[in-house]
Design a protein that fits this description.
single chain, mainly alpha, de novo design (two linked rop proteins), about 0% strand
Length: about 140
């Protein structure tokens, strides 16, 4: 029997974020004692990335989609900061820190491009609606020769 396939599962940024969650759990297993508060925050924040990507992808309006994608982006940036905290406190080594932050950079880059692209689409649509709505009503537009 095949597993159900949802639209968000086909997104590169979603798959990248799921891989990052697996990575964070693998590293977090060894974090105990004084590192426990950072570990707990890290795991919640790492989970927030794919959860918000999936929820945002299911929204109909661009504004709603972007809101969830921006939350996911913020969570990825928070994870990068948690890496810094864990590194300076000797919770993770340089190699794990580099690997995790590289994955986060890819996620943030994809989300940033997606948000910027959809914002420019929304702006274009607004300008078009504005011109269409008022054309010939209150304002006259001169055509350029």
């Amino acid at each position: 029997m095949n597993e159900p396939s949802f639209d968000h599962e086909r997104l590169d940024m979603y798959r990248l974020s799921i891989d990052y969650v697996a990575f964070s759990y693998w590293i977090a297993k060894g974090l105990t004692g004084i590192h426990r508060p950072a570990r707990d925050r890290w795991l919640r924040t790492a989970q927030s990335i794919p959860l918000n990507i999936a929820e945002g992808n299911g929204k109909q309006s661009l504004k709603d989609k972007n809101r969830f994608f921006e939350i996911a982006r913020g969570s990825a940036l928070e994870c990068a900061s948690i890496h810094d905290v864990l590194r300076v406190c000797n919770g993770i080594d340089d190699e794990s820190n580099c690997q995790g932050k590289s994955e986060l950079k890819r996620i943030v880059s994809v989300l940033t491009r997606l948000i910027q692209r959809s914002q420019s689409v929304a702006e274009d649509a607004f300008e078009y609606e504005y011109e269409y709505e008022y054309r010939g009503a209150e304002y006259e537009y001169e055509e350029n020769p």
